[in-house]
Amino acid sequence: MQRWTVIVPVVATVFALSGEGLFAADKEKNDPQQRSPSERHWQIGFTPSFSSGNFGTNTTSTFVYAPVSIRRLFRDGDVTLVIPFVSVTSNGAATLVGGQPTPALGGGCFRNGGTEFRFDKPECVASLNAGQGVTTGQKETHSGLGDIILRGRYYIVEEREYVPLIALTARMKLPTANASQGLGTGAFDHGYGVELSKVFGEHWIGFLDGGYNFIGNPDGRELRNQYWYDVGGGYYFTQRFLVSAYYEEYRSLVADLVNIRDFFFAFNYRATDAWRFNGGVTVGVSNSAPDYALSLGTSYRF
Fold first, then answer.
1. DSSP state of 146
2. Distance from C-alpha of 131 to C-alpha of 151, rounded to nearest angstrom
3. For 32, 208, 211, 289, which has the most beta carbons within 10 A of its beta carbon?
4. Which H/E stretch holds residue 234?
């Protein structure tokens, strides 16, 4: 049986509302300390990220995701527009679906963790003959505009003594990335979720988020819809400096691949009411996740 290597990249931003992937970029949780002062209604942020991994194959790929975010803050929520620049370096077909790793051929065309092509399935052979998803053997870099994301969050319950802060979240992924270069699928996605957070004492805070994404199917592919969740906690060393850790899981969009699982470690520092700094490290614990991902960024409120 002939084998074809499929490089499955992870280029993502957690849409702090409905779990958009594995990068720390703009990963602002449902944190009471992040609520906007009444005189500041806008926020501009930039948090570039870098990831590397073999994603269950024998070849390492690297990815850069550099999003500019524009956020409008309200008393009971926020709306954010994310405009990302993406750069993908791999030796095979790469498609980004809201930042999640996805082979370039339809679901069911690979087995053994996504490394063995299914020549026994006629629909897969037809896709292969059409030139979809065949690796070149040499690494190539493709860069350009990624998928623009519009997302929102609405606080439905304020935190009280025994009640957590609860927010409903939603997001839309607009297919603005170049699908032929593996920067996106060319299909529209949307997702919905819930965020909970609760402060314990003076220094501790807990997080629990989850949601469901409806994934659009591009031509010649059939992708699964995706559930996701993360659970974690944080510690305030000062009122302005928070360190946190999360366990995250995202359902694989392709039936033959295992779910994406990782640990995410982050810091958030509120230097002033206007300036904020953030960073994070992701460590993958499943074959579909990156070996590691790094991010460092800042935002300004006005």
1. -
2. 34
3. 289
4. strand 226-238
260 vs 29: CA distance, rounded Å: 20
Cα separation, 245 vs 113, in Å, equals: 28
Are 133 and 127 in contact by the 8 Å Cβ rule? The answer is yes
Q: Is 32 helix (H, G, I), strand (E, B) or coil?
A: helix
**Whole-angstrom Cα distance, residue 300 to residue 114?**
41
Q: Which residue has the tokens 């409008």?
A: 72
Whether 103 has a pLDDT exceeding 70, the answer reads no
Q: What is the model's pTM?
A: 0.81
What's the first-to-final CA gap in the chain, in angstroms? 60
Count other C-beta atoms under 10 Å from residue 292's C-beta: 14
The answer to whether 53 and 63 have CB atoms below 8 angstroms apart is: no
Distance between CA 162 and CA 200 in Å, rounded? 10
Q: Do 225 and 252 form a contact (C-beta atoms < 8 A)? A: no
Tokens 């992040």 locate to 34
- Copy the structure tokens of residue 269: 């520092």
Q: Three-state SS for 51? A: strand
- When computed from its CA atoms, the radius of gyration of the chain, rounded to whole angstroms, is 19
Nearest-angstrom CA–CA distance, 265 and 296: 12
